Amino acid sequence: MKLRSHDRPANQGGFTLIEVMLTLVIMAGILITISQILTAARRSRDTIHNMQERQLAGPAILDMIERDLRGILTFNRFSTDVILIRDRILAGLDADSLDFTTSTDSLILFRQHEGDVFRRADFNEVGYRLRRNPNSDDFLEIYRREDFGIDDEPFRGGAYSLLHDRIKGFDIQVYDEDGIDAEPLEAWGGDSEGTEGLPTRIEILLTIELAPRISTEQLVRDTRSVEYKRVIRFPELVRRTIQDPDAQPIAAIPEVAPPVIEATPGSDGSGDPDGAGGEGGGGGGGGRGEGTLPGSDSFESGGLGGGV
Questions:
Q1: Is the pTM of this model over 0.85?
Q2: 251 versus 67: which is more confidently predicted?
């Protein structure tokens, strides 16, 4: 048996090397263009995220601190238990602490007597503390401390809430007097001599580093440190009442003067001011010659005049 060989056609179809290379170049250009578009979209997203963080994170923390300080509790408090500011350094960064008692309602719910009842307090111990970031040695974490009610140790204890984890500095400067030439103090209260009661003002400098939302997906990292400054002044009247115990307000029942009742002429109905029974103010007509009003002895004894 003889096998027949089929002749190959003269014009067999196929791609040349030049055509294959040209196709790869075009596909590579398309992929590069798509990659650039995605990178630009990521950068725009991270820029918007950083702008929102810049406008919200720092001012929100300072607003919370100022709100707590505006409600600082000074009534019936010792001058050494009003506010405590300490100068601290952590990992080479400013990490000052701030503790005081305030009338701001508590933000943390506390369980009472091991039950299912949670309560908030009208008066609390509040503080702001910093510690090292466990995930990065270049940053600090800032926490808000809150303790239910007020006890004998107003600057200790309580629960901590994380506010931010990329803090580059938290510096507090205290001023005992106002003015441009006033020298700042690094600490207030505690063992610091001559720093009792409330200072004239405090200046808080908060430094936060803004990072991309997904830093591992970007080759160019947009990391910028932003500083926020807040100046808080305390009223002179409040500071004066703390320094002078005799000037502090005292809770007491006010004294109310007894009302004055004048007799009406002719109250007996006759229209004659000199009629019978008008001696004591026309109290009972002609039948009551004494002229005493019913219940008048209660006014004389001061029964409604603040003698409760």
A1: no
A2: 67
Lookup result for tokens 């002179």: 236
- Tokens representing residue 71 in the block: 């409600």
Confirm whether 229 is domain-assigned. yes
- Write phi, then psi, for 166 (nearest 5 degrees): -130, 60
> Is there a domain that residue 301 lies in?
no
Residue 25 belongs to some domain of the structure? no
83-86: strand order across its sheet:
83-86, 97-102, 124-132, 140-148, 159-175, 201-210, 224-233
Domain contains 84: yes
pLDDT at 146 over 60: yes
Question: 153, 133, 54: which is closest to 90 by C-alpha?
Answer: 133
The confidence band for 223, taking pLDDT boundaries of 50, 70 and 90, is low
Is the pLDDT at 191 greater than 90? The verdict is no
Show the domain range for 211: 54-247
Total structural domains within the chain: 1
- At residue 223, what is the residue type? T
